[in-house]
Amino acid sequence: MISPTGYIDLSDEKLLALLKDGHEEAFDQLYFRYRNKLLSVAYNRLKSKEIAEEIVQDVFADIWQKRQILQIRNNLSSYLCTAIKYAVLDYIRSQDTKDAYVAEMIKVSETAASPVEQGVEFNELDFHLNKSIDALPEKCREVFTLSRYENYSVREIAEKLDISPETAKYHIAHALKTLRLNLKHIYNFFL
């Protein structure tokens, strides 16, 4: 067993090996080691701290999900910078889609549905949202519920569940990404 401070001195390769075995501490160390660099890369392209942070969270959430099959041919720093660049490009492309969505929603709102139709649509959306939340892994669902429904801060969640704040952030980011993907078809249905 490695002490928490022992992870600091490990090479990226050793941390990746531990990560593949599910060591959250190795994941946390990689996150702390590269977070600021990746935030800088994303921020320089997007000029938004919030969006840059979300993209960095998504990249690390993806690494955690794929940790057992992750194949890094070059060094980790290059891999992460490339992943951030592609994530930023995907975000920029999605903005074009979002702009089209906003224009469509303005048109739809001009011909707004009756209160009864709106109530039915809300109930349908609420049903699918709750179903997607229930399908999240147990710890992820617990962290997400504390964050979004009980308004706990990341620090409070970490203390309550005895996990690191970075792990709590990961679970929140993972839940949001999963919910976005699961509810995308509902958006198309309502249009």
Please provide a written account of the structure:
This is RNA polymerase sigma-70 factor. Helix 1 packs across helix 2, helix 2 crosses helix 4 (76-110) and helix 3 (49-65) crosses helix 4 (76-110). The protein has helices at 12-20, 24-46, 49-65, 76-110, 115-134, 138-148, 154-161, 165-190. The protein is built from eight helices and no strands. It has two domains: 7-111, RNA polymerase sigma factor, region 2, helix turn helix motif (Rna Polymerase Sigma Factor, Chain: A); 113-191, Winged helix-like DNA-binding domain superfamily/Winged helix DNA-binding domain (Arc Repressor Mutant, subunit A), CATH 1.10.10. It has 191 residues and is mainly alpha-helical. It is globular, with a radius of gyration of 19 Å. It is 78% helix and 0% strand.
What is the element string, with H for helices and E for strands?
HHHHHHHH
Q: What do we call the CATH homologous superfamily of the largest domain?
A: RNA polymerase sigma factor, region 2, helix turn helix motif
End-to-end separation: 53 Å
Number of structural units classed as domains: 2
Using the coordinates shown, work out and report the CATH topology of the largest domain. Rna Polymerase Sigma Factor, Chain: A
Low-pLDDT residue intervals, each spanning 5 or more residues: none
Amount of beta strand: under 5%
Helical content stands at: over 70%
Radius of gyration: 19 Å
Gross morphology is globular
Protein structure class:
mainly alpha
- Biggest pleated sheet: none
* CATH class label of the largest domain: Mainly Alpha
- Number-wise, the strands total 0
Output mean pLDDT.
84
CATH architecture of the largest domain: Orthogonal Bundle
- Tally of contiguous helical segments: 8
InterPro entries: RNA_pol_sigma-70-like, RNA_pol_sigma-70_dom, RNA_pol_sigma70_bacteroid, RNA_pol_sigma70_r2, RNA_pol_sigma70_r4_t2, RNA_pol_sigma_r2, RNA_pol_sigma_r3/r4-like, WH-like_DNA-bd_sf
Protein name: RNA polymerase sigma-70 factor
GO molecular function: DNA binding; sigma factor activity
Family: Belongs to the sigma-70 factor family. ECF subfamily.
